[in-house]
Amino acid sequence: MSVKLQKFLASCSIASRRECERLIVEGRVSVNGAVATLGDRIEADNDTVTLDGNALSRDRHVYVVLNKPKGVITSVKDTHDRETVLDLITGVDARIFPIGRLDMDVTGTLLLTNDGELTHQLSHPSFEIDKVYMAWVSGHVRAASLQQLQEGVLLEDGMTAPARAKIVKRGQNSTLIRLTIHEGRKRLVKRMCAAVKHRVYDLRRIRIGTIQSDDLMPGEWRHLSNEEVESLKRLANPPS
Predict the structure, then answer these.
(1) 72-127: per-residue pLDDT in tens?
(2) In this structure, are 136 and 173 located in the same domain?
(3) Do both 202 and 148 map to the same domain?
(4) Of these residues, 103, 105, 157, 202, which one is catalytic?
(5) 103 catalytically annotated
(6) Backbone dihedral region for residue 33 (phi beyond 0: left; psi -120 to 50: alpha; all else: beta)
(7) Considering only Cβ atoms within 10 Å of each terminal Cβ, which end of the chain, N or C, has fewer?
(8) Per residue in 163-207, pLDDT tens?
(9) How many angstroms separate the CA atoms of 206 and 239, rounded?
(10) What range defines the domain where residue 163 resides?
(11) Do 225 and 111 share a domain, yes or no?
């Protein structure tokens, strides 16, 4: 059965599917000795695929959930030698990557895997996978602002998709809101709240799809169960 070349590369833990497409465009990938082009399909069991001359094979997929603490970078490595989320995960032989990003000051649920196809599905907004956040914001959020968040707000990089927003608690001059989005744009929750005049000063992601990390202390991680992995795949590939 043939598969797209970039999908095969992602299954080999090379990088995300988008990054694998870049490697193909750069001419670094060959199939059976011939330089590949974007759009090529291969027979994974029969064709020989190389990256920079090195033969590739599919890895056993690994799925991890981390309760990310503050002060840690969501990156594979950091040029300033700061602690990264991968520094917190020991004893995993496979090369895994974070799915999406959480800012240094944001805590909560972060998934890491070497499954490039699932990474693409959980990251791309077209699959509409819920990401749920609890955000303490300045001031008292009014109904009109809540409605704006729900309908979409205009940012410098375009309108946001409709979201689900709910007031959970009010402080003396603050509000805790629960916000559910399915986009993955940079700093999106903070920018959405700023657009309705409420600054986020504490942000935690509590769920991605069906996966939570409330059973973990900050900095702790665990492997996903087979049932949890299947639940994510069902969300990404619902029955027609």
Answers:
(1) 999 888 788 899 999 999 988 888 999 989 999 999 999 999 888 888 889 888 88
(2) yes
(3) yes
(4) 103
(5) yes
(6) left
(7) C
(8) 999 999 999 999 999 999 998 889 999 999 999 999 999 999 999
(9) 26
(10) 130-208
(11) yes
